[in-house]
């Protein structure tokens, strides 16, 4: 029999057993209660308890078996595993029915199980973080066994070119040895991030100041969701916009000034990324500025400061930790942004300070390394994980610092909605 | 040195001018952001709207013996130059399915090739001068015309721009989102319920909370690396399938749903809980029968927003191989599929001019879906929002 059919049969039998358990449990509880004995729980609760004791252990056994097969590589024939689960289910059914007694707290038992299920669900987010960390770290370690960590961090030439030959056992045929110096990639990443921040921070911050300090209520309720639209546009759309519309404009403008710009220049993705990030900064800064206590504004105005001076010298300094925290989050977002740079920035690792030249970023190389027809074992594929590790470490640090700053702000002014 | 009143009032005017300047500059910044938005949508509309129209040509078809092998034999050689090759290839099959057609003639509208289409829309086209004249003549006679592009909405991907459509990607998106929602919604709601209603305030709870906030800020491409290393390489989930794509996106959407659900749960006033406890409900009964139903609108809104976010995501899906070339619509969770943003990405990489408008057309469809989803979320919130 096919595995699919086996699984269908298994689910069918388990479902039938569950139904049997439900009705038998309820019938027994109803019978006991009809005898006039006070019970700790309702018949339905006993019924659900018997269902849990039937299906729970059975599902656990099959899940355990699946994990043993995956992790230890032991092969347990599927029919045996499923049959064992069903036997456990039948055992659970008898135990469950036997537990339908007046002095048994069925509701408490069910709620204990529910609580553990909720805990398990909450742990999945932890597993996700560990999953990301482990998957990246293990593959990155394999990469660093092939190429030295020091060369990776300090090398200025990224040329994975011939690494696939080494993976195929023909290393000596390669014209030149593969080089994995990540400095040009990080230089490109920081260049594009810097351009994005030059666009996003002034515009986002000023827009937030306008919305929270000057704008009439009506403008505010309209402007905030409109700005959020910018954040909701998929990045692949921004990438297309940057490559097809913005890059030619940049080339044209640069040409007007007699400069020579590449169509894959760093300015186009940078500017478009900045536009994308404006709402991040504006909406967080807006919240922070709004939670600066009004007493500070009143005090400043009472001393004869103008509205503008109050904002510049009182409100902004008070909100600064929150604004910095928003900017750090924005930087972290820009560093990890992928689609815009994949579509609009160059592929060529290029160590330069001229933003009009094409340059590549960490995320572009990750995508390039993992979408080719290369073997998974090759150094180029594994280099994607090494780059991912650095990206993970940098964004994690930025996020944590940002969280700490916003917490300091929150404690200083005792606001709870941040 | 003491200042005269004139000095002071001049200084005051200066200060007020500076204050006003800040107002105008900050207003300008907001206006600039709005201007970007308007420019962006105008650009996408002007590029994408032509994609919803496609050139069709009226040709005489003569189903002769030769057409059984070579579709183009059924047409005049002049017509064959401007008809899409995808249609020519259909003719032998049509004759095989319906032998009675043999020997008959027919006049019908068929798909013109991409170059004719681009020429009619005034874009760059590879048509020769004589072909352009022939097309112009047929336009005069009403034999070539732009019509609503049904192909775009009913077909999968194709290397011929006139034949390429978004249907396969749309189906793939639906399948992927089903997986995402089926995983992320229950787990997200359960996590939020645990953290808000059950969890003791201990170390583990704090770690989970910090961790969730951190997950929300991790670059999406790293989720792709997780999907590749763990789901595909370790668990052996089929590459490029909606299953693996949906699982990867589910992990990404999880923090959004958790955070939204927690906010919704927190907005349910404690008096509700106290009342329920007061009549003897257990903790779980309070949550199930009172708190969750009241928080449901907020949870739905958050989930829809999370779904919209996942729907526009491309980077992790590229890593797990969901940028495959999918010409046929298939509704399977384990076979290779593509999604709308990935289709946009694929088309953006095609060299032909005609694909630019297909890309922008796909983007318009994607944006329309996202705007619809977000509008639903907003309306839901407006309709069911309760002030306690």
UniProtKB/TrEMBL annotation, chain A:
Its main location: membrane. The chain crosses the membrane at residues 6-25, 46-72, 78-101, 113-138, 185-209, 229-257, 263-281, 314-335, 384-406. Pfam families: BPD_transp_1, DUF3708. It comes from the Bacteria. One of its GO terms (molecular function) is phosphate transmembrane transporter activity. It is found in: Cell inner membrane; Cell membrane. InterPro entries: MetI-like, MetI-like_sf, Phosphate_PstC, PstC_N. It is a multi-pass membrane protein. Keywords: Cell inner membrane, Cell membrane, Membrane, Phosphate transport, Transmembrane, Transmembrane helix, Transport. Residues 186-402 form the ABC transmembrane type-1 domain. GO terms for biological process: phosphate ion transport. One of its GO terms (cellular component) is plasma membrane. Part of the binding-protein-dependent transport system for phosphate; probably responsible for the translocation of the substrate across the membrane. Belongs to the binding-protein-dependent transport system permease family. CysTW subfamily. This is Phosphate transport system permease protein. It comes from Billgrantia gudaonensis. The lineage of its organism: Bacteria, Pseudomonadati, Pseudomonadota, Gammaproteobacteria, Oceanospirillales.
Automatic annotation (TrEMBL), chain B:
The keyword Methyltransferase does not apply. Its main location: membrane. The chain crosses the membrane at residues 21-42, 166-195, 215-237, 243-265, 317-340, 360-380. GO terms for cellular component: plasma membrane. Keywords: Cell membrane, Membrane, Transmembrane, Transmembrane helix, Transport. Gene3D superfamilies: MetI-like. GO terms for molecular function: phosphate transmembrane transporter activity. It is a multi-pass membrane protein. PROSITE patterns: ABC_TM1. One of its GO terms (biological process) is phosphate ion transmembrane transport. Residues 170-376 form the ABC transmembrane type-1 domain. It comes from the Bacteria. It is found in: Cell inner membrane; Cell membrane. Belongs to the binding-protein-dependent transport system permease family. CysTW subfamily. This is Phosphate transport system permease protein PstA.
């Amino acid at each position: 029999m096919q595995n699919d059919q086996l699984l269908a049969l298994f689910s069918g039998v388990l479902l039938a057993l569950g139904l049997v358990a439900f009705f038998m449990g309820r019938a027994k509880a109803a019978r006991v209660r009809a005898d006039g004995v006070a019970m700790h729980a309702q018949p339905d609760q006993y019924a659900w308890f018997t269902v849990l004791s039937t299906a729970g252990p059975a599902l656990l056994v099959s899940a355990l078996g699946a994990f043993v097969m995956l992790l230890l590589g032991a092969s347990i024939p599927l029919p045996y595993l499923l049959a064992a689960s069903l036997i456990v289910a039948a055992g659970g059914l008898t135990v469950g029915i036997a537990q339908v007694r007046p002095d048994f707290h069925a509701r408490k038992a069910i709620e204990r199980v529910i609580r553990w299920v909720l805990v398990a669900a909450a742990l999945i987010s932890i597993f996700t973080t560990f999953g990301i960390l482990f998957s990246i770290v293990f593959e990155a370690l394999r990469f660093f066994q092939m190429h030295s960590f020091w060369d990776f961090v300090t090398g200025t030439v990224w040329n994975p070119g011939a690494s696939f030959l080494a993976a195929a056992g023909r290393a000596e045929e390669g014209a030149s040895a593969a080089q994995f110096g990540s400095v040009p990639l990080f230089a490109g990443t920081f260049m594009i991030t810097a351009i994005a921040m030059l666009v996003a921070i002034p515009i986002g911050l000023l827009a937030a100041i306008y919305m929270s300090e000057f704008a009439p209520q009506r403008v505010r309720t309209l402007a905030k969701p409109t700005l959020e639209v910018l954040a909701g546009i998929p990045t692949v759309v921004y990438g297309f916009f940057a490559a097809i519309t913005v890059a030619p404009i940049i080339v044209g403008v640069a040409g007007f000034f007699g400069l020579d710009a590449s169509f894959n220049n760093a300015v186009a993705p940078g500017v478009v990324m900045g536009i994308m990030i404006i709402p991040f900064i504006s909406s967080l800064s807006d919240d922070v500025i709004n939670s600066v206590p009004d007493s500070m504004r009143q005090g400043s105005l009472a001393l004869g400061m103008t509205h503008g001076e109050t904002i510049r010298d009182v409100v902004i300094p008070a909100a600064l930790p929150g604004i910095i925290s928003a900017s750090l989050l924005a930087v972290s977002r820009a560093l990890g942004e992928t689609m815009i740079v994949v579509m609009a920035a160059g592929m060529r690792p290029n160590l330069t300070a001229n933003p009009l030249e094409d340059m590549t970023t960490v995320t572009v190389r990750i995508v390039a390394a993992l979408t080719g027809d290369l073997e998974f074992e090759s150094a180029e594929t594994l280099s994607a994980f090494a780059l991912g590790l650095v990206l993970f470490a940098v964004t994690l640090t930025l996020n944590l610092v940002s969280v700490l700053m916003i917490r300091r702000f929150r404690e200083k002014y005792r606001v709870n909605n941040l | 040195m003491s200042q005269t009143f004139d000095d002071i009032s001049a200084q005051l005017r200066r200060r007020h001018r500076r204050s006003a300047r800040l107002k105008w500059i900050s207003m300008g910044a907001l206006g600039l952001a709005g201007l970007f938005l308007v420019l962006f949508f105008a650009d996408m509309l002007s590029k994408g709207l032509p994609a919803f129209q496609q050139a069709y040509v009226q040709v005489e078809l003569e189903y002769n013996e030769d057409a059984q092998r070579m579709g183009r034999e059924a047409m005049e050689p002049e017509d064959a130059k401007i008809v899409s090759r995808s249609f020519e290839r259909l003719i032998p099959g049509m004759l095989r399915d319906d032998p009675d057609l043999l020997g008959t003639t027919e006049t019908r509208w068929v798909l013109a090739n991409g170059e004719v289409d681009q020429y009619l829309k005034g874009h760059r086209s590879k048509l020769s001068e004589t072909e352009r004249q022939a097309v112009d003549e047929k336009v005069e006679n009403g034999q070539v015309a732009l019509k609503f592009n049904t192909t775009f909405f009913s077909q999968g991907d194709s290397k011929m721009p006139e034949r390429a459509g978004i249907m396969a990607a749309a189906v793939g998106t639906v399948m992927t989102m089903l997986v995402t929602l089926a995983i992320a919604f229950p787990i997200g709601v359960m996590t939020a319920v645990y953290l808000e209603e059950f969890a003791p305030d201990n170390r583990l709870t704090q770690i989970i909370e910090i961790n969730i906030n951190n997950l929300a800020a991790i670059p999406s491409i790293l989720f792709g690396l997780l999907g590749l290393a763990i789901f595909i390489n370790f668990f052996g989930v089929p590459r490029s399938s909606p299953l693996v794509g949906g699982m990867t996106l589910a992990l990404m959407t999880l923090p959004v749903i958790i955070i939204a659900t927690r906010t919704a749960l927190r907005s349910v006033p404690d008096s509700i809980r106290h009342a329920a406890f007061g009549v003897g409900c257990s903790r779980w009964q309070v949550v199930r029968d009172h708190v969750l139903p009241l928080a449901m609108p907020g949870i739905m809104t958050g989930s829809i927003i999370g779904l919209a976010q996942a729907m526009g995501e491309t980077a992790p899906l590229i890593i797990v191989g969901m940028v495959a070339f999918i010409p046929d619509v298939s509704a399977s969770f384990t076979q290779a599929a593509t999604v709308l943003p990935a289709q946009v990405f694929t088309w953006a990489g095609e060299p032909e001019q005609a694909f630019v408008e297909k890309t922008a057309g796909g983007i318009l469809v994607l944006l329309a879906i996202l705007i619809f989803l977000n509008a639903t979320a907003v309306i839901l919130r407006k309709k069911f929002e309760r002030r306690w």
